[in-house]
Amino acid sequence: MAAIFGGILPRIADYGQAWDLVRALTWAETALVAVVGAVNLGSYALLWAAAVPGLGWWRALMVDQSSTAISNTVPAGFAFGVGTTAAMYHSFGFSPGVITRAVAVTGISNSLVKLAMPALALLGLLLVRDPHPGLAVAAVLGSVLLLVAVAALTAVLTHRRAGAVLAGAAERVAGRIARRRGRSGPSGWVGRTDRFRTDSLELLRTRWVALAGAAVFSHVALFLVLLTCLRTVDGQGADVHWVVVLAVFAVTRLVTIVPITPGALGVAELSYVAGLTAVGVGAAAAGGAVLLFRLLTWFLPVPLGLGAWLLWRRGAGQDREPAAAGAAT
């Protein structure tokens, strides 16, 4: 991160010029950016609400902001974010099975949209200009990964034998590790995987429209923040066609699908700025738009997530009888 922010990005975009463009925003433009940013902050909670029947948007938002704050600031933050999510949902009265299914379904839905976006962006880009070779490579890579992911997901969910084979192999590996540490190995993973499969199929059967719609909406909301920042910051090339901006957005989302740094800090900024300048946006405009975009989407969730976590610690949204509620769920 130090190398990117201290060495690479300054060679592409001057921070002073980028900040001058941000400071030049009018009150109306600032209000527009704030509204679009607020919509984005609440968009991903819709996916959690769809994956956990009975959760509601407010509690989903509280969990989403808390886990995002941890993911954006802690090394290996995604794992700690999942742990925070599980702890908060358990306090709301949801059973471990419901929580695990929700984590899996939301993660799968989010990843499938990320993998599909480069191909969709390439199709749109063919209509307005010649595609960049890098986008074509990303589109092919995303499409291949998407097909592999869909095939694996379909096999696990629709074929009992496939799920049993995967669960059995995982149980054997975990057993070897446990025995080396002087502990007894796990058991019953095949049966629990089969129950997980049938419960997930029922959830997808009844809520697949809401899940797909929420996953797409969350990505559209995030893209609109980037596009709004670029349009309002202004500068050379800031009026580049929105399909071209979507292509840069799609490639960056694919690049950061595995977060090397907390919240992809540094990696995402470099990808966005380099991509925007490559398609004709001025360096200052690209730098200003991306820094404003990341302020709203990476930094702002940190204090908001801290506030949400403190509210949860004070009992907000928690079920006073979690054991009974979990059994009922």
TrEMBL record:
One Gene Ontology cellular component: plasma membrane
Compartment list: Cell membrane
Spans traversing the lipid bilayer: 31-58, 78-99, 111-128, 134-157, 208-228, 240-258, 270-289, 295-312
Keyword Transmembrane: yes
Keywords: Cell membrane, Membrane, Transmembrane, Transmembrane helix
Membrane topology of this protein: Multi-pass membrane protein
The organism's place on the tree of life at top rank: Bacteria
Keyword S-adenosyl-L-methionine on entry: no
PANTHER family per UniProt: UPF0104 MEMBRANE PROTEIN MJ1595
The protein's name in its UniProt record: Lysylphosphatidylglycerol synthase TM region
Species: Blastococcus aggregatus
